[in-house]
Design a protein that fits this description.
The protein is α+β, with helices and mostly antiparallel strands. It is built from eight helices and seven strands; from the N terminus they run αααββββαββαβααα. The longest helix has 10 residues. A hairpin with a 6-residue loop joins strand 5 and strand 6. The protein is globular.
């Protein structure tokens, strides 16, 4: 076994990508990428801090929750969460951002890379409000590249295949996992009221 630590070694090992693969990256939203955004209720966000420490976090909301502002810019509302602010802290230090959008039942995924900017402009917050509840902030993503991934990863994983879905009861409850990870027991908190509290604070 040998470590691969140069681009030359990597290219020798894998070869170069096919021309179509290399050339299908675009820099502005088109009809296809806009359609995927309008159908996607879930994305993953990759960021890193000023020292290069990486982080990936999920974001989910109603389909189309990440919306085009113009052909080169996206709006992503930041809904109430745990206030760790891992992604937002990273963007303050290093604005580079990578996003991966999924559409339920669809094998293809869409990757968008660019630069993030945290905003709290009234007009943007109001634009992203749901039932009168405005997000705490809005992430403006300045697009640098858009790339549609083929469905191989989702075919291999059978992600959307109901026959391989895992029964939630096969894992400990969220409350038990949190107690085991943190060592903290919150007096009076049960698994049921934890889930109920989460459901009541989505927006």
């Amino acid at each position: 076994m040998a470590r691969i630590d140069t681009l030359e070694q990597l290219t020798t090992l894998y070869g170069r990508p096919k021309e179509r693969t290399a050339n299908k990256e675009i820099e502005t939203l088109d009809d296809h990428s806009r359609r995927i955004l309008s159908l996607s209720p879930f994305c993953l966000i990759g960021t890193s801090d000023g020292r290069g420490n990486a982080d990936v976090t999920p974001r989910g909301d109603k389909p189309g929750f990440v919306e085009p502002y113009d052909d080169r810019t996206l709006l992503l509302p930041d809904r109430p969460g745990n206030n760790r602010l891992d992604s937002l802290r990273n963007i303050v230090e290093n604005s580079a951002i990578g996003m991966l959008f999924l559409v339920p039942g669809v094998g293809e995924t869409m990757r968008i890379n660019g630069q993030g900017e945290i905003r709290d402009d009234d007009d943007l917050l109001e634009r992203c409000a749901i039932d009168g509840r405005r997000p705490i902030s809005v992430l403006l993503i300045h697009i640098e590249s858009i790339y549609i991934h083929c469905p191989k990863a989702l075919i291999r994983s059978k992600l959307w295949d109901p026959s391989v879905q895992i029964d939630r009861a096969s894992l400990p409850t969220l409350g038990q996992i949190l107690r085991d990870h943190s060592g903290m027991v919150v007096e009076g908190e049960t698994d049921e009221n934890l889930v109920d509290r989460l459901n009541k604070s989505l927006w």
